[in-house]
């Protein structure tokens, strides 16, 4: 008897419905171009917004950290794993984000798993945007708190729900800053104002906003000038910062509470010295210049304008995230495969990551892309789009 026969059925169902994801393996460093299956292709689907993933300044910092601190901390932060590098990174994150303090954890996922369940209990209530990232959803599921899902970016609906639950003493509104699949922004000023009227806390996951929005990439709170009015900022170091790790930034007492009780901090080994040193180097670069951020936005504007001119549906994006909307999953997978044949690596995104009927190629722009790279990508999208009948021009 095969006790795992149900897995065979589940995998067969994915294949039949065109939802089976064949994961490609990168054989090089992650830059504007990568090697996959022995083929050099233009990378248009990485979160490497600023090109830091193979930046030699970050690599040099990581190598120096290995020489001085070794490759691993050997323990969880709360027992024997906190090194001077971890403390310095937290100081630098807090300064960069404009908060009293910050706590670094192992990933963006752990940011939400550390924070949400710790802050909210059974008598409390969470208000969460219907399109929030899976890591937020998982953090919410780990609580015993009551939860309310409000329509995407609908602050009027959120305010009604807050008013209906005025008697709840502790309320937390959670939202992505930049929604990763569509590239639209949370209406954070209106959310903060609603929260202040109804005594609710606000938590924003800035994973796709840091390094992208605000002064020198300081994120969505800086972008909207809301310093001191957003209670909790969470994020990751694995996207614009090009490395690994996550953080929570906010008041000193919030961070101290997390340091004492947050489970990912207490029960998982600390981030490695080379990773932490590379994160600090990324902050060094951004504090010194906004050039990488400006280059990212210039590339995004150029590429989006060219695809829109061709007739592609780019959804509601307000950021360098560029969803090329294709509808059915099979169309998206076929489009991705055809792009790869043309030398462009851009993966399909389909259910369950996005709703059924809203499959897409999610193009992720980078400051590492040159004008020549963008022209190459536009030509490939045009060729494949015409071949598959997605565009007519």
What report would you give on this structure?
The protein is an alpha/beta fold. It has 2 domains: 20-49 and 290-387, Aspartate Aminotransferase, domain 1 (Alpha-Beta Complex); 57-288, Aspartate Aminotransferase, domain 2 (3-Layer(aba) Sandwich). It has 15 helices and 13 strands. The protein has helices spanning 5-16, 56-69, 77-81, 84-97, 108-119, 134-141, 155-164, 188-198, 220-223, 252-261, 263-267, 273-288, 291-310, 329-341, 371-387, and strands at residues 33-36, 39-43, 101-105, 125-129, 146-150, 171-176, 201-205, 232-236, 246-250, 321-327, 344-345, 348-349, 359-364. β4 (125-129), α6 and β5 form a beta-alpha-beta unit. The longest helix is centred in the C-terminal third of the chain and has 20 residues, at 291-310.
